[in-house]
Here is the input.
Amino acid sequence: MKKFKRASTLDMQKQLRLLPGHIVVGLWCLFTIGMLGWIVAASLSTSPEIMRGEALKFATGLHFENYVKAWSSNNISVFFLNSLLYASCTMVGSLAISAPAAYVLGRYVFFGNKLVRNGFITAMSLPQIMIVLPLFSLATSAELTGSKVVLIFIYIGMQVPYTTTFLISFFSNLSRVYEEAAAIDGCPPMKTFWKIMLPLAQPGIVTVGIFNFMNIWNEYFLSLIFASSERNMSVGPGLKSVLTAMQYTGDWGGLFAAVVIVFLPTLVLFLCLSRTIISGITAGGVKG
Amino acid sequence: MKGVFHLKKDKKMIVCFLTPAVLMFFIIFLYPVVRTIAMSFFRVEGVSDAVSTWEFIGIENYVTLLQTPIFLDSMKNMLKIWFFGGIVVILISLLFAAILTNGLYGKTFYKTVIYIPNIINAVAMATMWITAIFNKRFGFLHNFFDFFGSDLAKVDYMSGSAKFWSLLAAFCFGSVGYYMLIFMGGIERLPLDMYEAATIDGASKTKQFTRITLPLLRGVMKTCLTFWSIGVVGFFVWSQMWSAPLASELSTTTPFVYMYNITFGTQGNTFRNAAMGATVGVLMALTVLVVFFLINLLIKDDDVEV
Here is the structure.
């Protein structure tokens, strides 16, 4: 509303003409916000209130104990910390592997450059069902099933093609001047990369790092296969187990508190960095 | 001259920098793909059975699979999701992209909110839909229709034939934001002078959209269709959520879910066949390939690249 006041009458007329558009996207947004809002409200209500459809009345006050209960007795704390570990390790690991690869692929002409790039692009469109069975048997023969390391390793490998492809365009757009100046000053090429080129590609690194973090936080299938024990579970399968348990306990308040805990990290991250994330998607046209 | 000198000197660096990424590619993608394809031609019971126990049977897995009613049903479900969901998602996201690139106030706010479902964990998102929207006692749809005294208030969206469509609706709702952003990127890259000329010539906004924007967005459309197809082949978690507390259910089973059931087994299902799972994987990869081919054949890509 504030924006309307500042606008000139000509703009006002234009916005009025666009009213149908405002209504369509506005209703869609209202629905989204309403759904999230209802879940947050329900997470602060009691199960009987929710069942009576009175989640928004807060007749018995705000029940923050739902969160305490979800965090400790529903095991959400374990899933949360696991996901945090998986997502952070994958973010760092895939960047450490992909950034140097993207640098040489984006800036040097050499035999096999095109082949590697095409391989990565093909890998990005490969259905997961094509690769999961051999990976599982590899993990079994290495006697590593049920350990967190396997999942982290697979996640890092999974993100390498996407991360590299995303970063190639960032590196190839940098000016040659930096490397030439560094070479004249006697800086070895590898040092030039770490000290000069990597910091220059920082916007791309940050964007793809956030994408990787969110992708892994929201990953479901591989976590289900490679981290099936309660101890190693990530938030996706973990929340599903809470939902299944809820059928017997009837603890709706606790379930909704768990839902909020699971979506809050990525939501906050997104709202804080929405400009970076949205321009990353719009510009790249790559999955994120 | 300088380039040649540079290249020679940096050979060591190229090898050092590229090896970890390529090695990862070999372990996580190339080796598994080759082994999965090989596996589909053998009789293999358990996922981790040694290669020495595999028994070569040619294309028998494929023949059996294409005669398995559950698999064919799951293919039918996937096709329905791809076709109906695809039409709805592409049309709505195109409409939203057109609306939002038209100079609307609050554009950033709108697109941020519309994109939100994409960044939320699918399990959390599905739980919200199942409870807040579709629950037959306190869900939004129940209350909405109850308010108007409509009989629709009595419908249970989580059972019977409604189940598939409620699943599809929830999935599509979340997908719109992503494709909308891709379309917006495409539209914002189109040259403005063409629209100015069209406006001077008296073409209406609608006409400008259908005659200028749409034809120029063919490349973007191709990108969207490709991503949509890849996404639908990977349709798994939503299906699992809609069949909870059961492990899977016929009306919402996709090939991915079927493959999971026969290779990793589920409660009450002792039949396991890893090779059949591999066969499903190969068929899905082939499906993606065929779709790629068709999209490239049908849509000529001679416009603005996104």
Q: What stands out?
A: The CA atoms of residues 42 and 55 of chain A lie 5 Å apart. Chain A touches chain B through 101 residues (CB under 8 Å). Chain A has a mean pLDDT of 89. Residues 2-65 of chain A form one domain.
